Amino acid sequence: MTVEATDKLPEETPEKPEDAARPCLDGMPYRAIVFARLHSNEAKTPLYWVGGVAGGPWSAINSLKKAVAVHGATCFYCSTGLAKDTVTIDHVEGQIGEIPNAIQNLVLACKPCNAKKGHLPIDAFKPEAGREWLQALHTQIEERLRKLGAQTKIK
To answer: pLDDT by residue for the chain (155 residues), tens digit each?
Structure first.
């Protein structure tokens, strides 16, 4: 399956970093995390504010930690409530590639689920969680393409 972008509309503005640098999941505490700016480092790492937390901005991982501390969370995989001593941050697609700590690649998980998942792809570990995460990414990609003024065709 391929996606083609066609028919750029001239009245649309180019994509901004804040459109890309946000969690793809809508529930709390993810929605409390808001893009602040790109770090001045060579990698231009996105930095985030966290609603209800003074200070910042922070990296994606630190933002998730701060958001959980203030807003609480449940395990993305089993929906168990997370406490300070049971919360972990899982890299959905592993820590390989250019942006392993991208906010879209991070979910909150309990220690048992994170340990069981290990290096498995999300859809091999929990197909329903994989479907939810991929659908959220798909929705975000469609929204970003729309903002760019592109129409998508899936072949």
So the answer is: 444 444 444 455 566 777 778 899 999 999 999 999 988 887 788 999 999 999 999 999 999 999 999 999 999 999 999 998 999 999 998 776 666 788 999 999 999 999 999 999 999 999 999 999 999 999 999 988 888 875 545 54
Given a contact cutoff of 8 angstroms between Cβ atoms, the answer to whether 125 and 92 are in contact is no
What is the rounded CA–CA span in Å between residue 109 and residue 23?
A: 15
Rg (CA), the chain: 16
pTM: 0.81
* Dist. CA 42–CA 57, nearest whole Å: 17
66 touches 58 (CB < 8 A) = yes
75's CB contacts (< 8 A; 6+ apart) are 82, 108, 109, 110, 113
